[in-house]
Amino acid sequence: MYVKALLKIFEYATNIKEEKLKDSELIETEIDNELERTERIRKIQRKRLDTFKLDESLQDKQNNNYLPSSEELKREFELADVSDFVRQGLQAIIDDQVTKRFTTEELAVWNLLSRNDQQYEYISFRVTVLWLCGLLLRYCVLFPFRLILFMFACTFTFMSTFLIGRVRDGRFKRILNWYATLILHRILSRVFSAIITFHNKENKAQPGSICVANHTSPIDVIILSTDNCYSMIGQQHGGFTGMMQRAFSRSARHIWFDRSESKDRHLVAKRMTQHVQDKTNMPILIFPEGTCINNTSVMMFKKGCFEIETEIYPVAIKYDPRFGDAFWNSSKHSMLQYLMLMMTSWAIVVDVYYLPKMSKRADEDAVSFAKRVKKSIADKGGLADLEWDGMLKRASPKLDLMYEQQENYCKHLKIN
Hints:
Shape: globular
Strand order of the largest sheet: 1-8-7-2-5-3-4
């Protein structure tokens, strides 16, 4: 009911916005019509003159299948000959496939949130009233309640992990941790008013396996952990995130590593292999992209977890950005700033698709297997399947990628 009411309000505000924009465009069009008409007449006149001035000797050469010499080709070179390459270069700069995956997704419908690029709160008096009412509801009603719930969840986390950590390892401890983890993440999901729909639950990850998913936000873990319990693996953080990582490690086996340390990579692979060999351990949850993407695509999967001989359970996570943008731009917002944005959004609406388990084929290497899993996730979630490395968000392109683009450019320049 809440979601349906929000959609009606968003549609109403969007219709008013479009009416106002059309009115302003009509005024601008009337002013520019006379200038455009004059310019079109001049272009037509220039084309006619160019047609009549066509050289007769050149026509004879074309009719006789004349092939110009290399010297003539050099003399007849014009700047327009390279316009196609310039256009492709400018297109790659303005609208490349990588950079726009690390920014907020553009919305077709304005959701009355002033934090995105579509800021129309002052375009009409009616829209302004709606926006102010929504602002008061989100910050004065929803946010205080969510903040209290978040503080309770943090307290529950530290207390439950401390107590469970004091229990001796065994079946009883695993049961305690299972229920405590489910309760905790279901409370945390209500902090963001998460509305989660799980599909094909029969494909849920089993103990002693690996679960891989596309990565949009730190709350991906919360979303998935409301339906299953996982052992997490990921980059070691400081601050509030690091404090939560240490708390979770008291009650269960999680793997945290430093991506910059080469020794950690070998140690992580060894610990993952040992973890999946014990079928009493919770499944490992991994985000092979290694960074957050804005939920419009799936980028290159790191091959590490696909080298381990075990079953892989793919999961596709698809957020509905109309009610709140779940993407975490870590270069722009800290973790606490991001949590603040989430708690002042309308809601987090998400679909989770469990895919059938997959195993590496006899003729496959880790890279090919990773690509096959990535494609299945992209197809199920309706996301673009990209081969680019998500770490381009933080680092310069590798030389191999640069050489590949240079070779492709050289092929275009070759004359048969």
